[in-house]
Task: structure prediction
Amino acid sequence: METVVEWLPRLGALLTILLGLVGFFRPQLIAGAQQITLGSPMALSEARVVFGGLHLGAGVMALALNAPVIYMTLGVGWSVALLARFYSMKVDNTSLKDSMPGIVVDSAMATLLLSGLIF
Result:
């Protein structure tokens, strides 16, 4: 029988897929929450690719292959996204208040996906 810890990376992959589905079909929801204006059809298309396609593809393949190295790769990706948020707070002067939702999501996703290495 598998333990909860063994399911945490799968949960991270499922949540990555869920975020990918939202980004693919409703990129305005994610863009609006991040104060990103999608002012042209190409901007909308690019948002679908970045917020949808990449997350959806990565999450689906993580579940399909079910290999620790895939979960680790996805977890490192979320970790670097978190690092980018902190870097942006410094160089772009984004506020902690505005960055907090992204920090929470990125850190939770990284923790779930890397939990097999941590626990």
In short: The chain has one domain: 4-118. Helices lie at 4-25, 27-33, 41-65, 68-91, 96-118. The chain has a mean pLDDT of 94. Residues 41-65 form the longest helix (25 residues).
